[in-house]
């Protein structure tokens, strides 16, 4: 079998289906896709609202609860505890398949009728203002996180303690404004660092301590901008450089200059075999995948970050932990297999198709909010024999009478849910982080948009009036509502595209942390700080490039001829090396 070129229904660009792809589609009995890989990813990850919380009313009790679904959305929600209780029966919403109408149209009606749970939280203690989070204690505004204590303002935090304002940390303590760091202690404003302590504005430093503005160091101490100092000299110079918000920016610029002089490896990856993509660890046979761990034989997958990851899966986003034979699914994992065109399927589920929020179930097709059920279609219970006989008829019906969305895109069996089925606005989800759109662009493309909840208040203090040094601030600043810098400088329309909250507060625990470690007070709200950290993450795209190394001491005559796929675009300023040259440079 040879490559086949197809034209994407959505973006109208050509894309290629390779022979191995056809083999996978045949194995799981689905037709080839009609959307290109990038458009499929956008359509899928907009089902992942990680951090936009609303106040919504439980449809059963009338109680106001935190919810991932906006009250502006037409979908009903139940408080999480009520949803999991035996006080209601989702089978009561069951209905027969109407073969005179498109099946997905009927599924969309079921999605609007059956209540969804308000948000995903498991076993949290004193951590009410969190979402997509489990096993937290004394945490605040933590999202997509697990097993943390006293962590505030973060996304993708695990096994960490006393960390404030970070993204993607693991086994860290007393860290602030860090991105993709592991096993670090007192690291500040640092990126891609491991097994280190007392770092400030460092990138790609491993087994280091007491380093400032450094990049690409291994097993070093007392370095500033990659130059060695004695311990006393280091301490003196470090004190001179810190303490002021204004001076921080000039120091940061010099640190970034140092970062750009140090080569970067073509991909963020370790202990892999035969992979293409970025942020991949302990995996093999992965293609065009990102943020993956302990996975094998996967393609077009993203954010499968919980070990063990995934096997034999395509077009799968979030989150792993023993997933196999997954295709076109989002927010699915924990010992699941054969999940297709579905979302929020966890834990312990098998053979689920076109369904949402169906934990611990088997053999479901087009179901919503079923728990521990089997052999159901549109929430109607069938015998095993009836179910196995009816499913092929439904698939045939989906092909003969497909659903057409508002933009004229056609959905036969084999496509993920149309964007208009999503309960979230595009702007609320991780799709907006990876592939940002304006409200106009989203609406023109048929992607839903939810207007952010704006509280009725006026700021007490402008970001411009926050003292330059934290030592000049008193605890009374925690009583102030502060105007966000992004809202003030960029304007409300642009700021709202990243869900800027317009104003924010510095809570007392946060203020004590800044004061103790002499760190500048923030000038932006949590959402804008998260957005700024996200600029350190490479895009979910790959470019074919050649190693930029010219050092003959690395074992090659003249320029290195090694080629690779990398998420560093050709116009980026970084010096990008192949594996061999990078290892010789930094170790």
Supply the key terms.
about 575 residues, alpha/beta, 38 strands, single chain
Description:
This protein has 587 residues and is an alpha/beta fold. Among the domains are: 1-32, no CATH class; 149-265; 548-586, no CATH class. Helices cover 22% and strands 29% of the residues. The chain has 14 helices and 38 strands. The strands form 10 sheets. Strands 19, 20, 21, 22, 23, 24, 25, 26, 27, 28, 29 and 30 form a 12-stranded mixed beta sheet that branches. The longest helix is centred in the middle third of the chain and has 17 residues, at 245-261. The model has no long low-confidence stretch (mean pLDDT 95).
Helix content: 10-25%
The 3D shape can be described as globular
Q: Outline the low-pLDDT stretches.
A: none
Q: Biggest sheet, open or closed, and with what strands and sense?
A: 12 strands, mixed
What amount of the residues lies in strands?
25-35%
Please state the CA-atom Rg, rounded to the nearest Å: 25 Å
Rounded mean pLDDT is: 95
Give the topology.
Layout: E1 4-7, E2 14-17, H1 19-28, H2 37-45, E3 54-57, E4 64-67, E5 77-78, H3 80-84, H4 103-113, E6 116-117, E7 121-122, E8 131-137, E9 140-149, E10 152-158, E11 164-170, E12 179-182, E13 185-188, E14 197-200, E15 209-212, E16 221-224, E17 227-228, H5 231-241, H6 245-261, E18 264-265, E19 269-270, E20 273-281, E21 284-293, E22 296-299, E23 302-304, E24 310-320, E25 323-333, E26 336-343, E27 350-353, E28 362-365, E29 374-377, E30 380-381, H7 384-400, E31 403-404, E32 410-411, H8 430-434, H9 439-444, E33 461-462, E34 482-483, H10 485-490, H11 492-496, E35 503-504, H12 508-516, H13 526-533, E36 543-546, E37 563-566, E38 576-577, H14 579-586
Parallel strand pairs: 5-6, 7-8, 8-9, 9-10, 10-11, 11-12, 13-14, 14-15, 15-16, 18-38, 19-20, 20-21, 21-22, 21-23, 22-24, 24-25, 25-26, 26-27, 27-28, 28-29, 33-34
Antiparallel strand pairs: 1-2, 3-4, 16-17, 29-30, 31-32, 34-35, 36-37
């Amino acid at each position: 079998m040879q490559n086949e070129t197809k034209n994407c229904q959505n973006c109208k660009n050509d894309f290629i289906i390779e022979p191995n792809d056809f083999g996978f589609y045949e194995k799981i009995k689905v037709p080839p896709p009609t959307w290109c890989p990038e458009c499929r990813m956008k359509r899928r990850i907009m089902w992942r609202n990680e951090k936009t919380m609303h106040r919504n009313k439980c449809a059963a009790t009338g109680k106001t609860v935190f919810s991932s679904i906006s009250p502006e959305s037409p979908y009903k929600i139940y408080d999480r505890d009520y949803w999991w209780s035996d006080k209601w029966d989702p089978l009561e919403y069951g209905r027969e398949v109407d073969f005179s109408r498109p099946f997905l149209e009927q599924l969309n009606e079921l999605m609007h009728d059956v209540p969804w749970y308000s948000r995903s939280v498991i076993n949290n203690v004193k951590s009410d203002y969190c979402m997509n989070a489990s096993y937290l204690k004394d945490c605040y505004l933590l999202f997509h996180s697990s097993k943390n204590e006293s962590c505030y303002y973060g996304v993708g935090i695990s096994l960490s303690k006393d960390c404030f304002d970070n993204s993607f940390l693991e086994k860290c303590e007393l860290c602030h404004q860090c991105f993709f760091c592991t096993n670090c202690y007192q690291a500040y404003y640092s990126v891609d660092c491991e097994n280190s302590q007392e770092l400030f504005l460092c990138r790609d430093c491993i087994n280091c301590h007491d380093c400032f503005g450094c990049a690409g160091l291994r097993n070093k101490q007392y370095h500033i901008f990659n130059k060695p100092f004695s311990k006393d000299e280091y301490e003196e110079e470090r004190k001179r450089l810190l303490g002021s918000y204004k001076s921080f920016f000039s120091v940061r610029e010099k640190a970034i200059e140092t970062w750009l002089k140090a080569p970067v490896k073509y991909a963020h990856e370790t202990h892999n075999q035969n992979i293409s993509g970025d942020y991949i660890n302990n995996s093999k046979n992965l293609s065009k995948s990102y943020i993956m761990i302990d996975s094998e034989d996967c393609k077009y997958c993203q954010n499968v970050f919980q070990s063990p990851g995934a096997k034999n899966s395509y077009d799968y986003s979030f989150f792993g932990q023993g997933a196999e034979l997954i295709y076109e699914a989002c927010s699915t994992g924990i010992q699941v297999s054969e999940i297709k065109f579905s979302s929020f399927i966890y834990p312990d589920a098998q053979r689920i198709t076109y369904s949402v929020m169906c934990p611990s179930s088997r053999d479901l097709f087009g179901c919503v909010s079923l728990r521990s059920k089997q052999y159901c279609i549109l929430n109607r219970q069938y015998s095993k024999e009836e179910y196995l006989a009816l499913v092929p008829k439904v698939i045939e019906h989906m092909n003969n009478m497909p659903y057409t969305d508002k933009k004229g895109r056609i959905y036969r069996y084999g496509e993920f849910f149309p964007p208009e089925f999503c309960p979230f606005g595009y702007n609320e989800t991780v799709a907006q982080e990876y592939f940002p759109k304006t409200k106009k662009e989203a609406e023109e493309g048929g992607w839903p948009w939810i207007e952010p909840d704006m509280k009725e208040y006026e700021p007490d203090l402008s970001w411009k009036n926050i003292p330059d040094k934290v030592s000049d601030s008193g605890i009374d600043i925690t009583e102030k509502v502060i105007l966000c810098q992004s809202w003030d400088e960029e304007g409300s329309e642009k700021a709202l595209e990243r869900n800027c909250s317009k104003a924010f507060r510095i809570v007392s625990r946060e203020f004590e942390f800044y004061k103790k470690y002499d760190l500048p007070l923030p000038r932006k709200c949590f959402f804008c700080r998260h957005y700024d950290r996200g600029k350190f993450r490479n895009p979910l795209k790959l470019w074919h490039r050649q190693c930029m190394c010219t050092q003959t001491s690395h074992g090659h005559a003249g320029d290195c001829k090694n080629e690779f796929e990398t998420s560093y675009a050709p116009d980026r300023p970084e010096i990008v090396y192949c594996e061999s040259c990078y290892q010789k440079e930094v170790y």
